Amino acid sequence: MNYDRILIRYGEISTKGKNRNRFINQLKLNIKESLSGFSAVKIEAGRDRMHIYLQNPEEVEGIIKRLKPIFGIQSFSPVVKTASDLTEIKEHAAKLVASLVQDQATFKVSARRADKSFPLDTNELNREISSYVLNQVDGLIVEMKNPEIELVTEVREEGVYLSAQKIPGAGGMPIGASNKASLMLSGGLDSPAAGYFMMKRGVEIEAIHFHSPPFTSEQSKQKVRKLTAQLAGYSGRIKLHIVPFTAIQQAIQKQVPENYTMTSTRRMMLRIADLIREKSGSKAIVTGESLGQVASQTLESMQAINAVTATPVLRPLVTMDKTDIIEIAKEIGTYELSILPYEDCCTIFTPAAPKTKPKLDKVAFYESFIDFDLLIDEAVNTTETEILTPNTLLNESSDEFSGLF
Ligand code: ATP
Ligand code: MG
Protein backbone atom coordinates (compact mmCIF):
# COMPACT_ATOMS: atom_id res chain seq x y z
CA MET A 1 0.00 0.00 0.00
CA ASN A 2 1.11 3.48 -0.70
CA TYR A 3 0.97 4.80 2.82
CA ASP A 4 1.71 8.48 3.25
CA ARG A 5 1.95 8.75 7.03
CA ILE A 6 1.22 7.13 10.36
CA LEU A 7 -1.22 8.80 12.70
CA ILE A 8 -0.47 8.38 16.41
CA ARG A 9 -2.98 8.81 19.25
CA TYR A 10 -1.59 9.61 22.68
CA GLY A 11 -3.99 8.16 25.22
CA GLU A 12 -3.19 8.88 28.86
CA ILE A 13 -0.64 11.51 27.96
CA SER A 14 -3.37 13.82 26.75
CA THR A 15 -4.90 14.11 30.22
CA LYS A 16 -1.78 15.43 31.89
CA GLY A 17 -2.55 19.15 32.06
CA LYS A 18 0.46 21.44 32.21
CA ASN A 19 2.93 18.65 31.68
CA ARG A 20 1.34 17.75 28.43
CA ASN A 21 3.86 19.50 26.20
CA ARG A 22 6.74 17.86 28.00
CA PHE A 23 5.14 14.42 27.56
CA ILE A 24 4.49 15.03 23.89
CA ASN A 25 8.04 16.27 23.27
CA GLN A 26 9.46 13.27 25.10
CA LEU A 27 7.32 10.90 23.05
CA LYS A 28 8.43 12.59 19.85
CA LEU A 29 12.05 12.23 20.89
CA ASN A 30 11.61 8.55 21.78
CA ILE A 31 9.91 7.80 18.48
CA LYS A 32 12.59 9.66 16.57
CA GLU A 33 15.32 7.69 18.28
CA SER A 34 13.58 4.39 17.75
CA LEU A 35 13.13 5.10 14.03
CA SER A 36 16.68 6.30 13.51
CA GLY A 37 17.51 3.30 11.30
CA PHE A 38 14.86 4.23 8.72
CA SER A 39 14.91 6.86 5.96
CA ALA A 40 14.73 10.25 7.63
CA VAL A 41 11.09 10.58 8.63
CA LYS A 42 9.47 13.86 9.57
CA ILE A 43 7.47 13.86 12.79
CA GLU A 44 4.89 16.51 13.53
CA ALA A 45 3.45 16.62 17.03
CA GLY A 46 0.12 18.29 17.64
CA ARG A 47 -1.89 18.60 20.84
CA ASP A 48 -3.97 15.48 20.25
CA ARG A 49 -2.15 13.56 17.59
CA MET A 50 1.21 13.02 16.06
CA HIS A 51 1.98 12.38 12.40
CA ILE A 52 4.95 10.47 11.09
CA TYR A 53 5.45 11.29 7.43
CA LEU A 54 6.91 8.33 5.59
CA GLN A 55 9.74 8.87 3.15
CA ASN A 56 9.62 5.35 1.89
CA PRO A 57 6.21 3.60 2.07
CA GLU A 58 7.93 0.22 1.91
CA GLU A 59 9.26 0.78 5.41
CA VAL A 60 5.80 0.89 6.94
CA GLU A 61 5.89 -2.68 8.29
CA GLY A 62 9.26 -2.12 9.96
CA ILE A 63 8.10 1.17 11.43
CA ILE A 64 4.91 -0.39 12.80
CA LYS A 65 7.01 -3.02 14.55
CA ARG A 66 9.14 -0.34 16.19
CA LEU A 67 6.15 1.72 17.30
CA LYS A 68 4.39 -1.14 19.10
CA PRO A 69 6.58 -1.22 22.24
CA ILE A 70 6.88 2.57 22.62
CA PHE A 71 5.14 3.73 25.80
CA GLY A 72 2.86 6.75 25.53
CA ILE A 73 1.14 5.58 22.34
CA GLN A 74 -2.49 4.56 22.75
CA SER A 75 -3.03 3.44 19.16
CA PHE A 76 -1.83 4.27 15.68
CA SER A 77 -2.99 4.01 12.09
CA PRO A 78 -1.16 3.98 8.78
CA VAL A 79 -2.83 6.53 6.49
CA VAL A 80 -3.15 6.80 2.71
CA LYS A 81 -3.54 10.26 1.17
CA THR A 82 -5.49 10.83 -2.03
CA ALA A 83 -6.64 13.84 -4.02
CA SER A 84 -10.11 15.26 -3.32
CA ASP A 85 -11.61 13.34 -6.17
CA LEU A 86 -14.31 10.74 -5.70
CA THR A 87 -12.98 8.26 -8.24
CA GLU A 88 -9.56 8.37 -6.72
CA ILE A 89 -10.90 8.06 -3.19
CA LYS A 90 -12.91 4.99 -4.15
CA GLU A 91 -10.01 3.27 -5.88
CA HIS A 92 -7.61 3.82 -3.02
CA ALA A 93 -10.24 2.76 -0.51
CA ALA A 94 -10.82 -0.55 -2.30
CA LYS A 95 -7.11 -1.21 -2.57
CA LEU A 96 -6.54 -0.44 1.09
CA VAL A 97 -9.38 -2.64 2.33
CA ALA A 98 -8.38 -5.47 -0.01
CA SER A 99 -4.88 -5.46 1.47
CA LEU A 100 -6.35 -6.16 4.91
CA VAL A 101 -8.95 -8.85 4.19
CA GLN A 102 -7.72 -12.42 4.52
CA ASP A 103 -10.86 -14.41 4.06
CA GLN A 104 -13.83 -12.57 5.47
CA ALA A 105 -14.19 -9.40 7.49
CA THR A 106 -16.92 -7.18 8.86
CA PHE A 107 -16.72 -3.67 7.48
CA LYS A 108 -18.06 -0.14 7.48
CA VAL A 109 -17.08 3.27 6.13
CA SER A 110 -16.93 6.31 8.43
CA ALA A 111 -16.58 9.49 6.44
CA ARG A 112 -15.86 12.90 7.96
CA ARG A 113 -16.00 16.08 5.95
CA ALA A 114 -13.95 18.99 7.24
CA ASP A 115 -13.88 20.56 3.79
CA LYS A 116 -17.46 21.67 3.31
CA SER A 117 -16.83 22.60 -0.32
CA PHE A 118 -16.54 18.93 -1.22
CA PRO A 119 -19.60 18.14 -3.38
CA LEU A 120 -20.78 15.07 -1.38
CA ASP A 121 -21.94 15.16 2.24
CA THR A 122 -20.99 12.54 4.82
CA ASN A 123 -23.91 10.20 4.11
CA GLU A 124 -23.35 10.32 0.40
CA LEU A 125 -19.66 9.67 0.88
CA ASN A 126 -20.36 6.67 3.11
CA ARG A 127 -22.77 5.25 0.56
CA GLU A 128 -20.61 5.86 -2.50
CA ILE A 129 -17.43 4.49 -1.00
CA SER A 130 -18.93 1.45 0.68
CA SER A 131 -20.89 0.33 -2.35
CA TYR A 132 -17.76 0.61 -4.51
CA VAL A 133 -15.57 -1.25 -2.01
CA LEU A 134 -18.18 -4.00 -1.45
CA ASN A 135 -18.32 -4.44 -5.18
CA GLN A 136 -14.57 -4.68 -5.61
CA VAL A 137 -13.49 -6.68 -2.57
CA ASP A 138 -14.69 -10.20 -1.77
CA GLY A 139 -15.52 -11.42 1.72
CA LEU A 140 -16.86 -8.19 3.23
CA ILE A 141 -19.93 -8.11 5.43
CA VAL A 142 -21.34 -4.73 6.43
CA GLU A 143 -21.53 -4.29 10.18
CA MET A 144 -22.22 -0.92 11.77
CA LYS A 145 -21.29 -1.86 15.36
CA ASN A 146 -17.64 -2.73 15.99
CA PRO A 147 -16.66 -3.89 12.53
CA GLU A 148 -13.23 -5.50 12.07
CA ILE A 149 -12.38 -2.98 9.40
CA GLU A 150 -13.54 0.60 9.81
CA LEU A 151 -12.47 2.62 6.83
CA VAL A 152 -12.10 6.14 8.19
CA THR A 153 -12.25 8.69 5.39
CA GLU A 154 -11.40 12.27 6.26
CA VAL A 155 -12.00 14.88 3.65
CA ARG A 156 -9.86 17.94 4.28
CA GLU A 157 -8.94 20.91 2.17
CA GLU A 158 -5.47 19.67 1.38
CA GLY A 159 -6.60 16.16 0.47
CA VAL A 160 -8.39 13.04 1.65
CA TYR A 161 -7.02 10.66 4.27
CA LEU A 162 -7.92 6.99 4.42
CA SER A 163 -7.13 4.62 7.24
CA ALA A 164 -8.50 1.18 7.96
CA GLN A 165 -6.36 -0.15 10.78
CA LYS A 166 -6.21 0.92 14.40
CA ILE A 167 -3.18 -0.78 15.88
CA PRO A 168 -3.04 -0.88 19.69
CA GLY A 169 0.03 0.84 21.17
CA ALA A 170 1.86 -0.07 24.38
CA GLY A 171 -0.04 2.50 26.48
CA GLY A 172 1.59 4.03 29.55
CA MET A 173 3.74 7.14 29.47
CA PRO A 174 6.79 8.00 27.37
CA ILE A 175 10.04 6.87 28.95
CA GLY A 176 11.98 9.81 30.35
CA ALA A 177 8.83 11.74 31.24
CA SER A 178 9.07 10.63 34.88
CA ASN A 179 12.79 10.90 35.59
CA LYS A 180 15.08 7.94 36.25
CA ALA A 181 15.35 5.00 38.67
CA SER A 182 17.95 2.31 39.33
CA LEU A 183 16.74 -1.27 38.86
CA MET A 184 18.39 -4.05 40.85
CA LEU A 185 18.49 -6.66 38.15
CA SER A 186 19.20 -10.30 38.98
CA GLY A 187 18.98 -13.06 36.41
CA GLY A 188 15.59 -14.12 37.79
CA LEU A 189 12.06 -13.74 36.50
CA ASP A 190 10.94 -10.91 38.71
CA SER A 191 13.30 -7.99 38.39
CA PRO A 192 13.05 -7.67 34.58
CA ALA A 193 9.25 -7.51 34.94
CA ALA A 194 9.65 -4.84 37.63
CA GLY A 195 11.82 -2.84 35.22
CA TYR A 196 9.20 -3.14 32.50
CA PHE A 197 6.47 -1.76 34.77
CA MET A 198 8.62 1.22 35.73
CA MET A 199 9.40 2.05 32.12
CA LYS A 200 5.70 1.84 31.35
CA ARG A 201 5.11 4.64 33.84
CA GLY A 202 7.58 6.81 31.94
CA VAL A 203 10.60 6.12 34.14
CA GLU A 204 13.98 5.70 32.51
CA ILE A 205 15.93 2.89 34.14
CA GLU A 206 19.53 2.00 34.76
CA ALA A 207 20.30 -1.58 35.81
CA ILE A 208 22.59 -2.73 38.61
CA HIS A 209 23.72 -6.34 38.83
CA PHE A 210 25.82 -8.03 41.51
CA HIS A 211 28.04 -10.90 40.57
CA SER A 212 30.50 -13.00 42.53
CA PRO A 213 33.18 -14.55 40.37
CA PRO A 214 34.39 -17.29 40.46
CA PHE A 215 31.25 -18.52 42.25
CA THR A 216 29.10 -17.06 39.49
CA SER A 217 30.13 -17.72 35.93
CA GLU A 218 30.72 -15.59 32.87
CA GLN A 219 27.50 -17.07 31.46
CA SER A 220 25.41 -15.75 34.32
CA LYS A 221 26.79 -12.27 33.64
CA GLN A 222 26.08 -12.69 29.95
CA LYS A 223 22.52 -13.72 30.79
CA VAL A 224 21.98 -10.43 32.61
CA ARG A 225 23.42 -8.47 29.69
CA LYS A 226 21.00 -10.29 27.44
CA LEU A 227 18.07 -9.48 29.76
CA THR A 228 19.13 -5.84 29.77
CA ALA A 229 19.28 -5.80 25.98
CA GLN A 230 15.79 -7.30 25.86
CA LEU A 231 14.43 -4.59 28.17
CA ALA A 232 16.21 -1.99 26.04
CA GLY A 233 13.71 -2.91 23.33
CA TYR A 234 11.32 -0.58 25.20
CA SER A 235 13.66 2.33 25.75
CA GLY A 236 16.30 2.16 23.04
CA ARG A 237 19.19 1.72 25.48
CA ILE A 238 19.88 0.85 29.11
CA LYS A 239 23.00 1.44 31.15
CA LEU A 240 24.08 -1.68 33.06
CA HIS A 241 26.39 -1.52 36.10
CA ILE A 242 28.02 -4.81 37.05
CA VAL A 243 29.24 -4.82 40.64
CA PRO A 244 31.89 -7.28 41.87
CA PHE A 245 30.40 -8.67 45.05
CA THR A 246 32.63 -11.62 46.00
CA ALA A 247 34.67 -9.95 48.74
CA ILE A 248 31.58 -8.68 50.51
CA GLN A 249 29.82 -12.01 50.36
CA GLN A 250 32.89 -13.73 51.76
CA ALA A 251 33.16 -11.23 54.59
CA ILE A 252 29.49 -11.78 55.43
CA GLN A 253 29.97 -15.55 55.33
CA LYS A 254 32.81 -15.25 57.78
CA GLN A 255 31.38 -12.80 60.31
CA VAL A 256 27.61 -12.94 60.29
CA PRO A 257 25.71 -15.88 61.82
CA GLU A 258 24.35 -18.07 59.09
CA ASN A 259 20.66 -17.29 59.55
CA TYR A 260 21.41 -13.58 59.13
CA THR A 261 23.69 -13.76 56.08
CA MET A 262 20.84 -13.28 53.64
CA THR A 263 19.57 -10.16 55.42
CA SER A 264 23.05 -8.71 55.56
CA THR A 265 23.75 -9.54 51.90
CA ARG A 266 20.63 -7.66 50.85
CA ARG A 267 21.55 -4.71 53.00
CA MET A 268 24.98 -4.46 51.40
CA MET A 269 23.48 -4.76 47.93
CA LEU A 270 21.10 -1.96 48.72
CA ARG A 271 23.85 0.28 50.14
CA ILE A 272 25.93 -0.20 46.99
CA ALA A 273 22.94 0.25 44.70
CA ASP A 274 22.18 3.50 46.49
CA LEU A 275 25.67 4.86 45.93
CA ILE A 276 25.59 3.98 42.25
CA ARG A 277 22.12 5.51 42.03
CA GLU A 278 23.34 8.73 43.56
CA LYS A 279 26.21 9.00 41.09
CA SER A 280 23.92 8.49 38.14
CA GLY A 281 21.38 11.01 39.41
CA SER A 282 18.46 8.64 39.54
CA LYS A 283 15.71 9.18 42.10
CA ALA A 284 14.71 5.72 43.35
CA ILE A 285 15.71 2.08 43.56
CA VAL A 286 13.51 -0.61 42.02
CA THR A 287 13.46 -4.30 42.96
CA GLY A 288 11.54 -7.36 41.82
CA GLU A 289 10.43 -8.25 45.34
CA SER A 290 6.99 -9.68 45.84
CA LEU A 291 5.53 -10.12 49.28
CA GLY A 292 5.87 -13.59 50.76
CA GLN A 293 7.70 -15.13 47.82
CA VAL A 294 10.88 -16.02 49.72
CA ALA A 295 12.41 -15.42 53.16
CA SER A 296 13.80 -12.00 52.27
CA GLN A 297 10.40 -10.85 51.12
CA THR A 298 8.49 -10.62 54.39
CA LEU A 299 7.60 -7.20 55.75
CA GLU A 300 9.96 -7.72 58.70
CA SER A 301 12.74 -8.55 56.30
CA MET A 302 12.02 -5.61 54.05
CA GLN A 303 12.13 -3.35 57.09
CA ALA A 304 15.54 -4.65 58.22
CA ILE A 305 16.96 -4.43 54.69
CA ASN A 306 15.41 -1.09 53.79
CA ALA A 307 16.81 0.55 56.94
CA VAL A 308 20.15 1.23 55.19
CA THR A 309 18.68 3.99 53.03
CA ALA A 310 16.09 6.74 52.95
CA THR A 311 15.91 6.55 49.16
CA PRO A 312 12.52 5.32 47.92
CA VAL A 313 12.68 1.60 47.15
CA LEU A 314 9.94 0.84 44.66
CA ARG A 315 8.58 -2.70 44.33
CA PRO A 316 6.15 -2.78 41.43
CA LEU A 317 5.49 -6.52 41.88
CA VAL A 318 4.89 -6.43 45.61
CA THR A 319 1.31 -7.71 45.46
CA MET A 320 1.55 -9.86 42.37
CA ASP A 321 1.29 -13.65 42.19
CA LYS A 322 4.15 -15.57 40.64
CA THR A 323 1.87 -16.90 37.88
CA ASP A 324 0.98 -13.36 36.83
CA ILE A 325 4.63 -12.32 36.87
CA ILE A 326 5.45 -15.29 34.63
CA GLU A 327 2.79 -14.17 32.18
CA ILE A 328 4.33 -10.69 32.04
CA ALA A 329 7.83 -12.16 31.59
CA LYS A 330 6.56 -14.16 28.63
CA GLU A 331 4.89 -11.11 27.13
CA ILE A 332 7.98 -8.94 27.37
CA GLY A 333 10.33 -11.64 26.09
CA THR A 334 12.42 -12.13 29.22
CA TYR A 335 10.99 -15.48 30.34
CA GLU A 336 13.14 -17.72 28.16
CA LEU A 337 16.28 -15.89 29.27
CA SER A 338 15.41 -15.87 32.96
CA ILE A 339 14.80 -19.61 33.15
CA LEU A 340 18.32 -20.39 31.89
CA PRO A 341 19.94 -22.28 34.73
CA TYR A 342 22.95 -20.08 35.57
CA GLU A 343 23.63 -19.55 39.26
CA ASP A 344 23.03 -16.23 40.94
CA CYS A 345 25.29 -14.82 43.62
CA CYS A 346 22.47 -15.05 46.14
CA THR A 347 21.49 -18.63 45.46
CA ILE A 348 25.05 -19.81 45.96
CA PHE A 349 25.42 -18.24 49.37
CA THR A 350 21.84 -18.82 50.50
CA PRO A 351 21.74 -20.29 54.00
CA ALA A 352 19.63 -23.40 54.68
CA ALA A 353 17.32 -21.52 57.05
CA PRO A 354 17.38 -17.75 56.53
CA LYS A 355 15.64 -15.68 59.17
CA THR A 356 12.19 -14.69 57.97
CA LYS A 357 11.77 -12.14 60.77
CA PRO A 358 15.22 -10.59 61.16
CA LYS A 359 15.76 -7.94 63.82
CA LEU A 360 17.34 -4.70 62.71
CA ASP A 361 19.46 -4.20 65.84
CA LYS A 362 20.83 -7.73 65.59
CA VAL A 363 21.89 -7.51 61.96
CA ALA A 364 23.46 -4.09 62.56
CA PHE A 365 25.37 -5.52 65.52
CA TYR A 366 26.76 -8.45 63.50
CA GLU A 367 27.79 -6.12 60.71
CA SER A 368 29.65 -3.82 63.09
CA PHE A 369 32.59 -6.26 63.22
CA ILE A 370 33.50 -5.71 59.57
CA ASP A 371 34.69 -2.54 57.86
CA PHE A 372 31.97 -2.65 55.22
CA ASP A 373 32.51 0.98 54.24
CA LEU A 374 35.87 0.05 52.79
CA LEU A 375 34.58 -3.02 50.97
CA ILE A 376 31.63 -1.08 49.61
CA ASP A 377 33.87 1.71 48.32
CA GLU A 378 36.02 -0.82 46.57
CA ALA A 379 33.01 -2.55 44.99
CA VAL A 380 31.65 0.77 43.73
CA ASN A 381 35.03 1.84 42.38
CA THR A 382 35.55 -1.39 40.44
CA THR A 383 32.02 -1.54 39.04
CA GLU A 384 31.95 -1.98 35.27
CA THR A 385 29.43 0.00 33.28
CA GLU A 386 28.22 -0.55 29.75
CA ILE A 387 25.33 0.58 27.60
CA LEU A 388 23.15 -2.04 26.00
CA THR A 389 20.78 -1.63 23.07
CA PRO A 390 18.46 -4.25 21.57
CA ASN A 391 21.13 -4.90 18.96
CA THR A 392 24.25 -5.01 21.12
CA LEU A 393 24.36 -8.75 21.56
CA LEU A 394 23.26 -9.61 18.05
CA ASN A 395 26.61 -8.32 16.82
CA GLU A 396 28.62 -10.18 19.42
CA SER A 397 29.95 -13.63 18.77
CA SER A 398 30.05 -15.16 22.19
CA ASP A 399 30.57 -18.81 21.35
CA GLU A 400 29.72 -20.49 24.59
CA PHE A 401 26.52 -18.47 24.84
CA SER A 402 25.23 -18.18 21.32
CA GLY A 403 24.72 -21.92 21.13
CA LEU A 404 22.01 -21.62 23.74
CA PHE A 405 19.62 -19.66 21.61
P1 ATP B 1 14.29 -12.19 40.81
O1 ATP B 1 13.35 -13.12 40.11
O2 ATP B 1 14.25 -10.79 40.31
O3 ATP B 1 15.68 -12.76 40.90
P2 ATP B 1 13.66 -13.34 43.29
O4 ATP B 1 12.24 -13.70 43.42
O5 ATP B 1 14.65 -14.37 42.96
O6 ATP B 1 13.75 -12.11 42.30
P3 ATP B 1 15.33 -12.49 45.44
O7 ATP B 1 16.41 -13.40 45.01
O8 ATP B 1 14.92 -12.47 46.85
O9 ATP B 1 14.00 -12.65 44.67
O10 ATP B 1 15.72 -11.03 45.03
C1 ATP B 1 14.89 -9.95 45.33
C2 ATP B 1 15.30 -8.77 44.50
O11 ATP B 1 16.63 -8.38 44.85
C3 ATP B 1 15.36 -9.08 43.03
O12 ATP B 1 14.10 -8.98 42.41
C4 ATP B 1 16.32 -8.03 42.55
O13 ATP B 1 15.68 -6.80 42.40
C5 ATP B 1 17.32 -7.96 43.70
N1 ATP B 1 18.46 -8.87 43.43
C6 ATP B 1 18.62 -10.14 43.83
N2 ATP B 1 19.78 -10.65 43.38
C7 ATP B 1 20.39 -9.68 42.68
C8 ATP B 1 21.63 -9.56 41.95
N3 ATP B 1 22.48 -10.56 41.85
N4 ATP B 1 21.89 -8.38 41.35
C9 ATP B 1 21.04 -7.35 41.43
N5 ATP B 1 19.89 -7.39 42.10
C10 ATP B 1 19.55 -8.52 42.71
MG1 MG C 1 16.53 -14.19 42.13
Oligomeric state of this protein? single chain
Helical stretch count? 15
In total, the number of domains comes to 2
Please trace the helix and strand order, writing H or E for each element.
Answer: EHEEHEHEHEEEEEHEHEHHEHEHHHHHEH
Kindly report the name of the CATH homologous superfamily of the largest domain: HUPs
Strand content: 15-25%
CATH architecture label name of the largest domain: 3-Layer(aba) Sandwich
Could you please describe the fold and organization of this structure?
With 405 residues, this protein is α/β, with parallel strands linked by helices. The protein has 2 domains: 5-168, VC0802-like, CATH 3.30.2130.30; 180-404, HUPs (Rossmann fold, 3-Layer(aba) Sandwich). 39% of the residues lie in helices and 20% in strands. It is built from 15 helices and 15 strands. The strands form 2 sheets. Strands 1, 2, 3, 4, 5, 6, 7, 8 and 9 form a 9-stranded mixed β-sheet that branches. A 6-stranded mixed β-sheet has the order 14-13-10-11-12-15, sandwiched between helices. Helix 3 crosses helix 4, helix 5 runs parallel beside helix 6 and helix 8 (261-280) crosses helix 9. The radius of gyration is 27 Å and the shape is elongated. Magnesium ion binds next to loops.
Set down the secondary structure blueprint.
Elements: E1 5-9, H1 20-34, E2 42-45, E3 49-53, H2 60-67, E4 73-82, H3 86-98, E5 105-113, H4 122-136, E6 140-142, E7 149-156, E8 159-163, E9 167-171, E10 180-184, H5 190-200, E11 204-211, H6 218-235, E12 238-244, H7 246-255, H8 261-280, E13 285-286, H9 299-306, E14 313-314, H10 322-331, H11 335-338, H12 345-349, H13 360-367, H14 372-381, E15 384-388, H15 399-402
Parallel strand pairs: 5-6, 5-7, 10-11, 10-13, 11-12, 13-14
Antiparallel strand pairs: 1-3, 1-4, 2-3, 4-8, 4-9, 7-8, 12-15
Helix pairs in contact: 3-4, 5-6, 7-8, 8-9, 8-14
Bound molecules: adenosine-5'-triphosphate and magnesium ion.
